[in-house]
Each structure stands twice: as structure tokens, then as C-alpha cells.
Design brief:
16 helices, alpha+beta, 621 residues, Rossmann fold, 4 domains
Amino acid sequence: MDTNVAGGQRSLLRLLTCGSVDDGKSTLIGRMLYDAQQIMEDTLATITKDSRKHGTVGEDVDLALLVDGLEAERQQGITIDVAYRFFATPKRSFIVADCPGHEQYTRNMATGASNSDLAIILADARKGLLTQTKRHSYICSLLGIKHVVLAVNKIDLMGFDQKVFDRIVGEYASFAAGLGFQTMQPIPLSARFGDNVTGRSGNTAWYRGPTLLEHLEAVNTEQDEVAKPFRFPVQWVNRPNLDFRGFSGTIASGSVSVGDPIVVAASGKTSQVARLLGSEGEMQKAVAYDAVTIVLTDEVDVARGDVLVPPMDRPPVSDQFAAHILWMDEEALLPGRQYLMRTGNLWTNASITTIKHRVDVGTLEHQPAKKLELNEIGFCNISTSQRVPMDPYAENRQMGGFILVDRFTNRTAGCGMMDFPLRRATNVHHEQFLVDKAARAALDSQKPMVLWFTGLSGSGKSTVAKLVEKALHALGRHTYTLDGDNLRHGLNNDLGFTDQDRVENIRRVGEVSKLMVDAGLIVLCSFISPFRAERNMVREMLEPGEFVEIFVDTPLEECIRRDAKGLYARAKSGAIANFTGISSPYEAPTQAEIVLAGGAGATPDALAEQVLDLVATHQLG
């Protein structure tokens, strides 16, 4: 982490610049690089040339071009991606991240903040604090940054007026009072002309504080990760041959020595450190940030994603916890929808059970919310499919941070910061019965499965499902049909037709279907089920081969023609909200086991025969 300088140690500071659009973040970094003489002559010549083409400062050299490296950034005069630059002074080394100011690139800003120890929050002296300035400040707080600089930039355009500076500083201090920053250093500066960046400005004689560079060289951001409890997320089970089995990864916090007792956090299995191997070979002790391989004295079951910890200082392990979530996807976060969650090296299924509140980044007020839209921040309860070791993010970034990934698109949908585990009754366990699914299925001489009929309203799925069940019953199969309309008269009568209610509707149906399959039945489910994510969620609740997706692919025009109840007409007039196919989307299956062409020429009996042929194949398979 440190760089040797003349036999001593030069500490490394990771920082980022953030704030609203056009506050001068890229220009500030360019100025620091220029004044620190960190720009090669050929690079400066190129920037000088490019300034004539892309520059925004007239005839002057546009120092922002040093970090706005993408052609799209130069053409638009904005920052899109996070740009990292390294520079050094005799006192310190720096890695600085230039983060985009546009709201649509908030996810990129969060990426830069997650690896930084200090944030330079820029505010345009002409505009003062803007919503994005406050949003970035709040995100920095959530992501564990404890030190900020309030850089009131473009003070030259306000005549170096102290009253302007004092007003902005006062407003920011009031806003940031509850964000938990350890230090907040306000500095008036002009990134374009260099006032108070690396040298003190004669234009601000009223300012007695440090220049920006002086503060960055002096601020102490050291966090004693070695003093924290030992945490070792296993990245790789290292087994080159039958005589060696070690667990490789990077120590997140604390220290470990040969002979120390160890416990696997999730399983509770105990052992002892037999050997420590680093890049230079055998070690007696390793500390935070060391990449090592740990060999245990016992053959303990340890896999990628497990966390090794000391027996007397274990982290909480839970499958439900509360966390702040910054939503990064254009498709809204919906409670009940399943996502993939990665925390450390562990991947698991996760869903948001409750959105406790949404945070208004302008006022920090808590507001009720049923979903989170792009760039919104909420405090949520999360449920995972397996127990997860965690420390609060405020105490340990490595153990308390996670990302949520869309299961269908593989996009990073959100990032989260764990706060605390949710306590559950300790007497709730899975009960093991003397008669299992295989025994029940054998009694019925059939393979239990779910036949999941999906399609638009009026596609004919319920009609086909009824015919299929009638035929299976005649063959002596034990069946049951779950129909969307019927369940909404009972089990799901508390749900409406918003996206979040549709998600919960299908989740409940999936749980009931799973129980019925466990009872040995062939379950026929007839639901519009418009979202792929929820259909895949039900599929993954069951064992391979137990979920058969049947897409009744009837064109919307044909569904409208068949509509005896006039639902489509009412939906088009606005009398029915959130109607699938009109005002709410339908996501057609991409991996259905069978697609039934339910157009004008198709008959329900012929479609049912196709399903019965498929079922027969599954029953004999």
C-alpha cells in the first residue's frame, strides 16, 4: 500500500472528486497534475492541441481533458466514466478518481466512492449547493468515507467574495451535520487559474486555511484494519494435488498467526491454522490486505465464499438483514423480486422483503416507498436463500458491502451497505418428515411437476390447462389446478395489479406449487405471470425437471378479438390501470419447454394434445 521514498514511507491517499455537473471536477484534477508537474511534455502538447477542438475555456489549455479521456466525454464536455489518475508529491502519493456529475451516471460515482478514503465535494460558487451535490455527499457517507473537502470552486467568478463562500459553507455544514464525517475542510478555490489548489492565492487574503494540496498531504485517513477482528473471505480452494488443501484469499481485516484457532463463520466448524503461505513462502503471521493461503489442521468443509474468523469474535450470520441500497438499474427495484447478491466472494439468491423508507437526498427526510427507481436510495429489509456472515458496513467495508445483480440481464442493479441482522425466532427449523416427496409420488405412480401456463389475458391458457387436467385425470394422474382468478378470491385477495403486487402474487403461487409438488401432485398453474424474473424464481424453487413452462403465444390482436368481458377496451380507455399488454409489459419466455401457437387457427384441443405429449415424455423420462 505504501511507496518507498528515500528509505522512508510515503503514504497513499485514495480520493475522489464529485459533485454536480460543470462544477469543475475534471479541471481541478488537471490543475493538480499540472501544478505538481506530473504531465509529460508530449501529453501537454496533445492537450493543448485538443483544447482548440474540444476545449471549453477559450484560448486557454483545458486541463479537464487530462481526465476526460473518452471521445464522447470530450465531444459533450462532460465526464461519463470514472477516470483514475496517480500522482505524487514528496510527502504523499495519491490515486484520484474523477467521478461524473450527471445524475444518470450516479452508479459510476458510487464505484469511485467505494474505494476512496476522502472525497472532494465541489460546489460552483455561482450556484451553491445543488441536489446532485447533496446526493453525492450522502452516497459518500453511506459508502464509509469519513473525510471530505468542500471545494467552493469558481470563486473567481464571484469576485472572490468571502460572503458567498461563508454562505455555501454554512449551508453545507447544516446539511452534512448528520452524515457522520470526521473532518470537513472548506476551501475557496479556482481550479481554472489555480487559486488555493497547490499554492495560496493572493485573491483570498481573508482565507486562513490550508491549500487543497496542503490539506491532502496532511489529513490522516488511516483506519487501523489490523486492529479489527480477523476476517478472511475464501476466494479459492487451492488443491493442486491430493497432499495439499489450502484456502486462498485476501485478509479483509485483523491478523492471523500459525496456531490460531479458526471457525467457519456460516457452518460453525472449527479448526486451527497449520500453515500460512504468502508470495514469499511460509509466514508466521499475516495481517489485513495480505494475500495468503491458509492451511488448516483438520479436514473441514470450506468452500469459496466462506469466511474464516476467530471463535471468540465471530460476525453475525443471518439470512435476513437491514441495509441501505443505492439502486442503479433503469428497471425499478420491486419487493419480492429475486436478485443475485454478491457479498465478498459469496453468491446467493436474495430478495427485498420490505422497503422501510426512501431517502430524500435533498433534505435527508425519510419517505414511504413501494419501489426504488434509478439512483434512489432506500433502507430495506433483505432475505437471502442462505445464511450470510456480515459485519455492519460502517465497521467493515469488506464484510458489509454487497451488490445486487439482475438474474435475467446480469446487470449490476444495485449496491448495498449492511446495517444489522434481523433477529428471528430461534425455534423455527425445517421439520423432517417420515414420508418424503419420493414416497408420495411412488404411491401415485407419477412424477410430480408444475405445468406453468403463461400468456396474455385471452390467450387461451386457462382453457388449455382445464383440458390438460381433464385428460390427466382420466389417465389416473393426481392433479390440481391453481388459477389466477381463483387465488385472488382467497390467498391473494389482498393484492392489486401494480408491478410489486404482481411479483408477490407469483411468489406466493410458487410457494404453494412447491408444497403441492412435495405432496406428489402434478400442478397446473395458469397465470399471466408477465415477468421472466418471477417465472424463473418459481423454476428455481423446484428441482430440475419439475418446472415445465408452457407459453401460449397468442397475438395481442387475437386476444383483443376474443375478449368477451371487454377488458382490453376498458384498459385502452384508461378504466383499468396496469393491464398487461396495454399499459403494463409482458416479457415473453425465452427458454419455455413448449410454445403453443395460439393464433386464430388453433383449437384448444389441439394445443392440449401438444402439452399431453410433452407430459408423457416427462413421466417416462
